[in-house]
């Protein structure tokens, strides 16, 4: 019983916290996959830029909360400009171009960050400290805030996609962008705004997680790997699927690390993905033939 | 449409197609598979940019416009294979149809929805069902209803009866007549020449990327050329 309360339960909560933040990252990734037909390799770097932009804003404004608003906006702008200048000219070409381009963008952002901020590990202090007694244990307030904030944002996004016209437009663009254009929707603008929004979400996840992780130019690389797994597991292009899969992977990663060293955890995570794909090649909630 | 050349990548499909559709007319575009009929439709709505030639609608040059601009001018596409959004509900699909309408308002939506339900009561029953759960005929109705929501004045229909049961084919045919009565101009691609000529005023026959024959529907029905070119 002691083991459950002092070890298992906190770790389970850690997993949920991490899963919610991972969901923010994976949701943007899966929507962009739907639009471009390829994975956005630069997504992890937008996550990283979010953390650095947060540090920069905190340095000026001395407030985590201001940074939490400003950093996603800044990164969203970077994403919008990137989309308009680099991705837009290649939409009519094969998806492979997008793959290579976003891979290149990831390198540019990563090395750019190293040039500007250096390669050192940095820390972001949580905006508040302390713990709350919860189910017989005490749990850090910031992590509880992180879980609540991420879940709230995910819920707001669900409302956006199901209840607003703009959300329906984005879902339609994911399914058949050309047809949507033929119905009178300026799809180029939809692409730019969606790319910006997914960048802003990644940035938000980056800054929200910064106080419990460390900030360094490579930080996006391992996150993006997890986010890829989440998107594949959830079913490529399925938004609900990636949120569910994010919680699964978050909790799995967290619980596995109780019993295994980090390398084995990574292998086990891949193992989950492989097993699911053998049983259900389209992922948990994916459509069939989405890659065709 | 004047001397339109177009194709995919480096592959030319259309070799100087010229055709006219006058306001209020229904015109059939006939021809065997692979003769460039669908390519012509895609070029007209702007999915493909013409390599040469011009396309005009109500005196406006469409040649360099993007699809959404063409749609907003009043051209609606009912594409091959319907291309409704399978993951969206019927309501959401119809809502997107409204995108091309200038000055969208709740009032306009209600009026257009009412008009659509009058012609396709079945869509009202399916309103909150997702597009992929509809039958082929219902999907075709939805694709037509979608451009009616936009208030399109010229509707480009690509094989609307393909793969449908006879009852649905009759329904679609009656619908085209009804659209004409409402003053909508229709350019119709059909494999089923009999259906097409029963609703259209005139027809063109296309072969290997060019128009090879043009006549009124009655002449086309009786002409040996039709039989020869279409193999019917």
Structural class of chain A: mainly alpha
Low-confidence stretches of chain B: none
Radius of gyration of chain A: 19 Å
Q: Total number of helical segments of chain B?
A: 10
Name of the CATH architecture of chain B: 3-Layer(aba) Sandwich
Helix content of chain B: 40-55%
- The low-pLDDT segments of chain A are none
Taking all Cα atoms into account, the compactness measure Rg of chain B is 17 Å
Number of strands of chain A: 2
Note the overall shape of chain B: globular
Helix content of chain A: over 70%
Mean pLDDT of chain A: 90
Order the strands across the largest sheet of chain B as they lie in space.
7-8-9-3-10-11
* Structural domains of chain B: how many: 1
Count of domain modules of chain A:
1
What order do the strands of the largest sheet of chain A run in, or round the barrel if closed? 1-2
Strand content of chain A: under 5%
Q: What do we call the CATH homologous superfamily of chain B?
A: P-loop containing nucleotide triphosphate hydrolases
CATH topology category name of chain A: ABC transporter involved in vitamin B12 uptake, BtuC
Descriptive key words:
heterodimer; A: 292 residues; ABC transporter involved in vitamin B12 uptake, BtuC; 75% helix; 3% strand; B: 232 residues; six-stranded mixed beta sheet; three-stranded antiparallel beta sheet; 40% helix
Could you give the topology of this structure?
The complex is a heterodimer of chains A (292) and B (232).
Chain A: H1 2-36, H2 43-61, H3 64-87, H4 95-117, E1 131-134, E2 137-140, H5 141-163, H6 165-182, H7 187-209, H8 219-234, H9 239-259, H10 262-279
Antiparallel strand pairs in A: 1-2
Helix pairs in contact in A: 1-5, 1-6, 1-7, 1-8, 1-9, 2-3, 2-4, 2-7, 2-8, 3-7, 5-6, 6-7, 8-9, 8-10, 9-10
Chain B: E1 2-8, E2 11-17, E3 26-30, H1 37-45, E4 52-54, E5 56-57, E6 60-61, H2 67-72, E7 75-78, H3 90-97, H4 106-119, H5 121-125, H6 136-150, E8 154-158, H7 166-181, E9 185-189, H8 193-199, E10 202-207, E11 210-216, H9 217-222, H10 224-230
Parallel strand pairs in B: 3-9, 3-10, 7-8, 8-9
Antiparallel strand pairs in B: 1-2, 1-4, 5-6, 10-11
Helix pairs in contact in B: 3-6, 4-6, 7-8
